Amino acid sequence: MVSPAATPTPLTVSRGVRLGYAVGSFCTANFSAIPGLLLLIYMTDVLAVPPLLAGFIVFLPKAWDLVINTLVGQWSDRTVSRWGPRRPWMLAGSIILPLSFGLMFIGPPLTGVPAALFVGVTFVVAATGYALYEVPYKAMPAEMTTDYHERTSLLQWRMVFVAIAIAMSGILAPAIAGKSVAGYRQMGLIFAAVLLVSMFGSFFGTARAPFTGPQEAEGTLRGQLAAARTSKPFLWLLALCSAQTLAAGVMLAGAPYFAAYTLGNTTATSTLFAALVGPMLVTMPLWVWLARRMDKRGAMILSGVLFAAGALLAVATPLLGSLYAHLCVVMVGVGYAGLQLLGFSMLADVIAYDGAVSGKRRGGVFTGLWTAVESAVQAFGVTIYGAVLAIGGFISSDPANPVTQPDSARTAVIVGLTIVPALIALSGVIMTLKYDLTAERMARATAPSPS
């Protein structure tokens, strides 16, 4: 069996394929958001795991991502099948990830170090399933169209589904989980089912996706990794997006602590997430328009500034109250919407540019490295927040033995959610100035050779 031949340079992608591709974002958003939001507090406040150990448990399985994601990227680049090079691996991930995700939250009744070890092992298996699905999934937009701006338009559909999934993760998941073992088990089962349905839906929904990428894969993994290491646009994009992902990961981990210990209302986690994802549902057309008017780099700088400003302003929450905090999060959400849309659109540009220049299909390794770094960075955000709590003297507990946190711990909760991510996001803005893969450069690289 052979991979399908490239279609004749289509500029637009059909609505059915857009929707079929977009529904897969329920996997991306839920698997990123739920562990980032709930895994740390699940271990510290339900399983009585010390915060520093819990932070490391969330982060350490990501070391495996550096291996498995790169391998999956190479495998998908070199796969020859009637389903194309990407979709067979998506199917494998659709089977593994939902099962292992559920096990993360429905394991045996353990506490302390044994509980941390069990969560860590199941997280590694889940990360493997995620790599099998997400790495080829991220490579597909670069191969669906040859048009620079159509990629942004295509991905705005994806970001709408991301917003819906983040709302589910940030509003429904904490409400279902509560602060009990039974609640977390129920949440794990429900969202495992959501993952299963959405991942299979995307697999079948992309069956008719056009394929415009190079037909010849890079021969060796070493060659593919060398291409990624020597691609200046890829390295700068990876660096700047990693900074923004790290900032978001720190804020995500801090949200339930901020709700509980700063706002004094554990249910505020849900309303904070509503304030975050609301802008993502309504500002996507605006960011598509801004990307055309300012180019993607300019719009990326604007979105990073908005994200950092909203985070920094939230430091005044103890003085100005809950409504003020939610307005700050709305500003963060507007910036976050732009960062998400533009980051993935620019990644598709980098893959398409590399394919046009080299004539080789190696987007899978690009997305494998990207996904590995993205997952590790986001998990490291949890570790950073856990370290900030530890420095502040935060005391871990379980529901049967509540504790009163010292003032230093309450200060650490605020600093970790505001000043720390704001500074990280601003570093990403500075790096964006070095990114130079513009529309004009893409047009020169993809223009037909004169006959």
UniProtKB/TrEMBL annotation:
<keyword id="KW-1133">Transmembrane helix</keyword>
<protein>
    <submittedName>
        <fullName>MFS transporter</fullName>
    </submittedName>
</protein>
<dbReference type="InterPro" id="IPR036259">
    <property type="entry name" value="MFS_trans_sf"/>
</dbReference>
<feature type="transmembrane region" description="Helical">
    <location>
        <begin position="154"/>
        <end position="177"/>
    </location>
</feature>
<feature type="transmembrane region" description="Helical">
    <location>
        <begin position="89"/>
        <end position="107"/>
    </location>
</feature>
<feature type="transmembrane region" description="Helical">
    <location>
        <begin position="271"/>
        <end position="291"/>
    </location>
</feature>
<feature type="transmembrane region" description="Helical">
    <location>
        <begin position="412"/>
        <end position="433"/>
    </location>
</feature>
<dbReference type="InterPro" id="IPR039672">
    <property type="entry name" value="MFS_2"/>
</dbReference>
<feature type="transmembrane region" description="Helical">
    <location>
        <begin position="113"/>
        <end position="133"/>
    </location>
</feature>
<dbReference type="Pfam" id="PF13347">
    <property type="entry name" value="MFS_2"/>
</dbReference>
<keyword id="KW-0812">Transmembrane</keyword>
<feature type="transmembrane region" description="Helical">
    <location>
        <begin position="48"/>
        <end position="68"/>
    </location>
</feature>
<feature type="transmembrane region" description="Helical">
    <location>
        <begin position="234"/>
        <end position="259"/>
    </location>
</feature>
<feature type="transmembrane region" description="Helical">
    <location>
        <begin position="21"/>
        <end position="42"/>
    </location>
</feature>
<feature type="transmembrane region" description="Helical">
    <location>
        <begin position="323"/>
        <end position="348"/>
    </location>
</feature>
<feature type="transmembrane region" description="Helical">
    <location>
        <begin position="369"/>
        <end position="392"/>
    </location>
</feature>
<feature type="transmembrane region" description="Helical">
    <location>
        <begin position="189"/>
        <end position="213"/>
    </location>
</feature>
<feature type="transmembrane region" description="Helical">
    <location>
        <begin position="298"/>
        <end position="317"/>
    </location>
</feature>
<keyword id="KW-0472">Membrane</keyword>
